[in-house]
Write a structure and sequence with these properties.
The complex is a heterodimer.
Chain A: E1 39-41, E2 43-48, E3 57-60, E4 63-66, H1 73-79, E5 86-87, E6 94-95, E7 108-111, E8 114-118, E9 129-131, H2 146-150, H3 165-178, E10 193-204, H4 208-219, E11 225-228, H5 244-260, E12 263-266, E13 269-276, E14 279-285, E15 289-300, E16 304-305, E17 319-321, H6 322-332, E18 339-343, H7 348-358, E19 362-368, E20 381-383, E21 386-391, E22 398-402, E23 408-412, E24 415-418, E25 423-424, H8 427-431, E26 436-439, E27 442-445, E28 458-460, H9 471-484
Helix pairs in contact in A: 4-5, 4-9, 6-7
Chain B: E1 5-7, E2 12-13, H1 14-22, H2 28-35, H3 48-57, E3 77-78, H4 79-83, E4 113-119, H5 123-134, E5 140-143, E6 159-160, H6 167-187, E7 198-202, H7 207-220, E8 226-228, H8 230-236, E9 247-251, E10 255-256, H9 260-272, E11 276-278, E12 283-289, E13 292-298, E14 301-310, H10 316-322, E15 330-341, E16 349-352, E17 357-361, E18 366-371, H11 386-399, E19 407-418, E20 425-429, E21 432-439, H12 445-460, H13 467-470, H14 474-478
Parallel strand pairs in B: 4-5, 4-14, 5-11, 7-16, 14-21
Antiparallel strand pairs in B: 1-2, 3-19, 6-10, 7-9, 8-9, 12-13, 13-14, 15-18, 15-19, 16-17, 17-18, 20-21
Helix pairs in contact in B: 5-9, 5-12, 6-12
Classes of the chains: A alpha/beta, B alpha+beta.
């Protein structure tokens, strides 16, 4: 984690869409500067800098959009006031970014001729071509939006036009052409470099739990390799959502890990964890390379996944995961709205509300559907209120909510921050065969006190175990236990990999 | 009307969940398949939990509130990256399957008596039940240990071809194609039959005469199969690199379907006619006395039966063994995967006959394909391997380089039900005359099922049919072996 990225809030109101000009510390809110003049673009809530053009531009649907150092495609588009990233599969509803962390795929776009690219992850570059997917017709309007209105009951494709054979054959052809959002990529594939490696301990996730596990494993002499999907390690500590002690511990580990023999790779997503023919293989992907690591033991510290809150219209652009919004503001200086409703009963909800205010957003309501947040946690706190409907055309314009006694209210807004409890990211552990338990937040990987799962070589720590309260402690225990477990008899490296990869 | 979106990838609404539950989809795997929820790009990371909460609210047993089976990879991977990965060694052995009762097992007992008990509610069992019910038989119980699409019927690539090397398979394939084309009207559910053709390619000189002989046989049966060269193959599938391809055949009347609705359609129509379809019910024994199967024992009680049919696909050997009958069938994993969905760019199903590769583009736009593995050990195994992905990606990107940029979305596996001569085992069982066999379809059972089950129902109702005399278990003792050569993988 970069120093300074987790200091206190700046405490001043900012108009909107904070323009950040200093490329050197783009990750920091402190780099932002209020613009003197601004003009609205596309929606009233949008403001872009009219200043001298900066050198970098991407082309979005043929229009130039400013790119600042460190931007993702989503950050650049949101700064420019673009909210509709694509159209949904069946109903051609407008779709924008939601999780801003690479899990929900709602922000999938065609980037430089490649389909289904997550705009929230891919770095924006000068001259990049960015296009909406599945759009039919001019710009943000879409002719096939009519499908949603024509099929008021929903489109039941199982029973669509089954009666008449000729109509049915026509339906097959039409459905086939409408049946995907992306088109085949342009150009030939580049076959990338896959780096073979072999490790005693691989740790998946570089948040507080994963880093604590890395330190413990390194102290145990295991020389662990840590994969972190984001460009910046630290997880919640990097997002400014962790307490002071955790932040300091994370910074210390990031400083000390190389000296202890641990290695951290950021910007590398672990896409799979296979256990076959007696070997464990971790497959990680970075921007221009991949890793295929034979691992004796694996610690899964994958944290949580943002979850949407299903209510009518809840898929409209402008309804965004609250933690993702904070990250967008911190790292990219972008706040895509000026009047927000915050919804969710997670303890982060008041933090998100405060963070948005600190960036100049007016928070008109903090809806706490489960009435779990402490009274007085926020000036806009409404315990027991839940969102029932979002209205708007191309993006959210109002959230209709219902109080505990059935009272209804409508909140005009151009942004809704959803702050539900993240669901444990259990998939990799499940792929490896670990058992899970159903909890209110989702499926948690079952572990003992030392982070051991039901699979002897697999350990888990942090939120993925269902307990987000003590990431450092749970990481330390899991990392220690993983380092202590004796390695399997040395195999000939990952099968087929070159001898350099084998120990 | 609650059009609240639950799964944003596939536009699945809360109303869709309610409709699916109304159609009997009360477990997460069935709910996923019926609605499409979780089959999109995010693979359920944003919707599965809401679906589980829906099931919890609507009374699904707590033990069944489990995540749907994880389908690697966690994030889509371009085939070029998988092709650049060296394949791990093959598995040496296969761990045994769990035999625990299914958490969805209903609490009420199975019917005490039935005219016909069919073991296996895949397309064979359900197709047979439906066809029998149309002929007036109603006291039929179909049993399955899992959900309806748990076996190979829910795991195959959906190809339906008539290009085979034996007259039997050619005729059955062609009859199935006709039935697929009429299925939506007959059963009231779409199966998305799309005759985009099958393109077979061969690379080994030894396979060329075999392919040529097949074409002659196809012509004799009235098929429109053509022998084409590598250049024409490249014209049929733009983007194909047929370098090294020695010969190819194309039958434009072959095609692909979406397999899942076949089972829902058959189950629904059979149930309407009085058939009892009982998933999540494990068969524990078959009571054989005096050369007859008397009853089927399940983990929900015993059913006395006049006829018992073994239609359990890759599990048929195990089920027959419960009656003391030894089948020569061998189950063996076949892996398969689906890419991200893309607008149509491949029309036919393409297969390298002597390399084991096949792929086609589904209705949804995914490239769905597989590759046989000569090193695959025997046994029932549904896990996906990196070895398969790497080998498949190499074969796929060599044959069609443009797929290098296509991303793998998910992998899974099913099991072929191999017989020594690659022909099915049908009809009566020597020594247990009322135990009927309907197994051994070696990876093309799904496409044969519509035709085979119709003929079997007629035969069981008294019609003469040479099929059920010729393809019996007896042929192995008598040395009358068949030899289907056009097996993929």
């Amino acid at each position: 984690m970069r120093r300074g990225a987790s200091r206190g809030e700046p405490g001043r109101r900012r108009p909107l869409s904070v323009p950040v000009r200093a490329g050197l510390c783009y990750h920091s809110r402190h780099a932002g500067r209020r613009t003197a003049s601004k003009h609205a673009r596309r929606t009233e809530a949008r403001v872009v800098s009219p200043q001298t053009p900066l050198p970098m531009r991407l082309l979005f649907e043929g229009r130039e959009v400013e790119v600042r150092p460190g931007d993702t495609v989503a950050a650049a588009l949101l700064r420019a006031g673009e909210t509709v990233f694509s159209r949904s599969l069946k109903y051609h509803r407008p779709r924008g970014a939601f999780c801003l962390s690479g899990t929900c795929t709602r922000c999938s776009m065609r980037v430089d001729g490649e389909p289904n690219v997550a705009a929230c992850l891919v770095p924006a570059r000068d001259g990049m071509r960015v296009e909406r997917q599945n759009a039919c017709g001019p710009d943000a309007h879409d002719l096939l939006r009519i499908v949603d209105r024509a099929y008021r009951q929903g489109l039941d494709y199982h029973h669509l036009m089954t009666h008449v054979r000729l109509l049915n054959r026509a339906a097959v052809e039409v459905a086939r052409r409408m049946g995907a959002t992306g088109r085949l990529a342009d150009g030939a594939a580049v076959f990338p470099r896959i780096i073979p490696d072999r490790r005693a301990v691989v740790i998946i996730g570089g948040g507080p739990a994963g880093l604590a596990a890395a330190k413990a494993a390194a102290l145990g002499g295991a020389r662990p390799l840590v994969f972190e999907a984001r460009a910046e390690a630290g997880g919640r500590a990097a997002d400014g959502l962790a307490d002071e002690a955790t932040r300091e511990a994370v910074e210390a580990i990031l400083r000390d890990l190389p000296k202890l023999g641990g290695e951290l790779v950021t910007g590398a997503t672990v896409a799979g964890l296979w256990n076959e023919a007696g070997r464990r293989v971790v497959f990680a992907r970075g921007e221009d390379r991949g890793w295929l690591v034979g691992a004796d033991r694996v610690v899964v510290a994958t944290g949580g996944m943002e979850q949407p809150m299903p209510f009518e219209g809840g898929d409209l652009p402008g309804i965004v995961a609250g933690r993702g919004l904070l990250r967008l503001a911190r790292r990219h200086g972008v706040v895509p709205g000026r009047r927000a409703v915050v919804a969710g009963s997670d303890a982060d909800a008041p933090r998100v509300a405060a963070g948005l205010r600190a960036h100049g957003v007016e928070v008109v309501a903090l809806l706490d559907p489960d009435a779990r947040l402490p009274a007085g946690c926020d000036e806009a706190h409404r315990p027991g209120w839940r969102p029932v409907r979002a209205t708007g055309g191309l993006q959210v314009e109002a959230i209709d909510a219902e109080g505990p006694d059935g009272t209804a209210a409508s909140f005009t807004c151009d942004l809704a921050a959803i702050v539900t409890e993240p669901a444990p990211a259990f998939e990799l552990a499940a792929q490896a065969g670990a058992s899970t338990a159903y909890r209110p937040a989702g499926f948690a990987v079952e572990t003992d006190a030392e982070g051991r799962t039901s699979v002897d070589w697999l350990f888990a720590a942090g939120r993925v175990t269902g307990d987000p309260t003590r990431p450092l402690e749970s990481g330390r225990r899991a990392g220690h236990a993983a380092a202590l477990l004796p390695s399997a008899p040395p195999a000939a490296g990952v099968a087929g990999s070159d001898s350099r990869g084998a120990e | 009307m609650d059009k609240t979106v639950v799964c944003a990838c596939e536009d699945v609404t809360r109303h869709d969940l309610e409709t699916a539950a109304g159609a009997g989809m009360r477990d997460i795997e069935s709910l996923k398949r019926y609605t499409g929820l979780g089959t999109g790009a995010c693979q359920g990371k944003s919707c599965m939990l809401e679906a589980i909460r829906f099931l919890e609210r609507t009374g699904t047993p707590r033990g069944a509130l489990v995540p749907f089976t994880t389908r690697p990879p966690l994030q889509p991977i371009p085939f070029s990256e998988l092709a650049a990965t060296d394949p791990p060694e093959p598995e040496r052995d296969v761990p045994p399957e769990s035999t625990a009762p299914h958490p969805m097992r209903p609490s009420e007992p199975v019917p005490a008596r039935a005219e016909i008990v069919i073991v296996g509610a895949g397309i064979m069992g359900l197709g047979l039940a439906y066809q029998l019910s149309k002929l007036g038989a109603t006291r039929i119980v179909v049993l399955d240990k899992g959900y309806l699409l748990d076996g190979a019927s829910g795991r195959n690539g959906g190809g339906v071809r008539a290009q085979f090397s034996t007259s039997l398979n050619i005729e059955l394939g062609r009859e199935s194609q006709r039935m697929c084309a009429a299925f939506a009207q007959e059963m009231g559910i779409n199966v998305w039959w799309r005759p985009g053709g099958y393109l077979f390619l061969v690379r080994k000189p030894a396979t060329v005469p075999q392919l040529e002989a097949s074409v002659a046989l196809h012509r004799a049966h009235g098929l429109r199969t053509r022998l084409v060269d590598a250049r024409e193959a490249e014209r049929i599938v733009p983007g194909l690199d047929a370098t090294g391809v020695l010969a190819a055949t194309c039958n434009p009347d072959d095609g692909v379907v979406f397999p899942w609705p076949f089972l829902w359609g058959y189950a629904d129509q059979a149930t309407r006619r009085g058939v009892r379809v009982e998933p999540f019910t494990r068969v524990a024994g078959i009571d054989v006395r005096g050369g007859r199967a008397r009853a089927v024992m399940t983990d929900r009680g015993e059913i006395r039966a006049e006829t018992v049919v073994v239609a359990a696909g890759a599990w048929s050997r195990d089920v027959a063994a419960l009656a003391g009958v030894k089948l020569p069938n061998v189950p063996c994993r076949h892996e398969i995967c689906a890419s991200e969905a893309l607008k149509p760019f491949v029309d036919p199903l393409v297969s390298e006959l002597d390399g084991g590769l096949y792929f086609s583009q589904s209705m949804r736009g995914e490239i769905i394909g597989g590759l046989g593995d000569p090193a695959e050990p025997e046994g029932i195994n549904h896990r996906g391997s990196l070895r398969f992905l790497s080998r498949y990606a190499r074969a796929l990107t060599r044959l069609m380089p443009a797929t290098g940029k296509v991303k793998l979305l998910r992998q899974w596996a099913g099991c072929y039900d191999y017989t020594p001569d690659h022909a099915p085992i049908l009809g009566r069982t020597p020594g247990v005359e009322n135990l009927l066999q309907l197994s051994g379809f070696v990876g093309h059972g799904f496409m044969m099922a519509p035709a085979v089950t119709r003929r079997m129902a007629a035969w069981m109702s008294g019609a003469r049919d040479e099929l059920f005399e010729r393809y019996t278990l007896r042929r192995f003792a008598e040395g009358r072996l068949e030899a289907e050569k056009m097996i993929i993988g």
